[in-house]
Amino acid sequence: MLQNPVEFFKQLPQKECAECGQMIEEQAESYLMECDHCLSKRDE
Length: 44
Known about the structure:
Blueprint: H1 5-10, H2 36-43
């Protein structure tokens, strides 16, 4: 039995920053693996 796609995506765990472990507030079609804080440190 196939699951409703909306329910499938609701059940996925929240994405975690690969650098610091903080939970990432995702937007649609975001492929980033670091949070905004870690990304801003990288530019320095």
